[in-house]
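<goal> How does this chain fold?
<sample>
Here is the protein in question

***
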Amino acid sequence: MVKVQLVYTKTCVYCPAAKQLFKDLKKQYKFDYDEVDAMSPEGQKLVSKYSIMSVPTIIVDSKVQWVGVPQKDKVVSVLAGK
């Protein structure tokens, strides 16, 4: 199963749109999904590991797939193609 991690901050103006996109996709597709605050201890580990400089950052199967809010059709192709 595809594992998706969305790294966000509470002050990010784009993060709510990214969160909503993945919540909507969860209704149609099966994938593990986790939202991680970049300021949390877990988030700081991801920021360091993946050299995250901007949020939202979406990590798919341990690889940074998108920075920013991705287009829905691109996310669907990744979720359906795995």
